[in-house]
Design a protein that fits this description.
89 residues; mainly alpha; 4 helices; 54% helix; flat
């Protein structure tokens, strides 16, 4: 991985922290590029390919958690959401 050799102290807690976390895991990601490409080929070649394809456990877990959060938010605000329609005639 290539990164700029310039480190700006003012960004140490933001971009600098991201740089450090990226370097800490670089080359040890759990995903297998060969298996991912095989999954993509399978999906694209299917009768009904998905609009979105998650690749790997981390992607699945993050997306599933996000869906749960969205469902809770949608359910919590359902009545207000539906109140924005014209009244039924």
């Amino acid at each position: 991985m290539r990164q700029s050799g310039v480190h700006i102290d003012d960004y140490a807690e933001t971009a600098g922290a991201r740089r450090a976390s990226t370097l800490a895991t670089y080359g040890r990601q759990p995903g297998d590029p060969v298996r991912a490409s095989e999954a993509i080929i399978t999906a694209v070649g299917s009768e009904r390919p998905p609009l979105r394809l998650l690749l790997g456990r981390a992607a699945y877990d993050v997306a599933s958690a996000r869906l749960g959060t969205l469902r809770t938010t949608f359910d919590t605000w359902r009545d207000l959401t539906l109140s924005a329609d014209h009244p039924a005639s």
